[in-house]
Predict the 3D structure of the following.
Amino acid sequence: QVQLVESGGGLVQAGGSLRLSCAASGTISSINVAGWYRQAPGKQRELVAAITSGGITNYADFVKGRFTISRDNVKNTVSLQMNSLKPEDTAVYYCSIVASRGPALPGRTYWGQGTQVTVSS
């Protein structure tokens, strides 16, 4: 089994910063892509940022220049540094990975349980 545990959410004022972390554990051979998604009340889940095993990053337009995604391929962790937070960033943030449990096994998508980020105005 593969488990993802997120941490770092909370309440912050507009303009502040938070750092989310996600640790993957279990039988993992490789993590191909790791990313952060978010879902606000009444809205669909949306991609925030993603990073490949080679370090190539992709950001949603609404976070470019404010958020930075990073990963540690040895520790199987992925982080999201969030700066200049806005009230509209309020959402539950989910960590997601596409990982293989063995060299010859296909990648599967795994999700964390989510962590609440609330930005007050």
